[in-house]
Amino acid sequence: MNIQKLLEWIVNVGIQGFGVLPPAEKVAEDHLSNCGNDCEKAINSIISWRTTYAATAELVTGLGGLFTLPVSIPSCLFCLILCFGGKYISGYSLSQRI
Question: I need a labelling partner for 46 at 20 to 30 A (CA). Which of 9, 15, 40, 80 fits?
Answer without folding.
Answer: 9
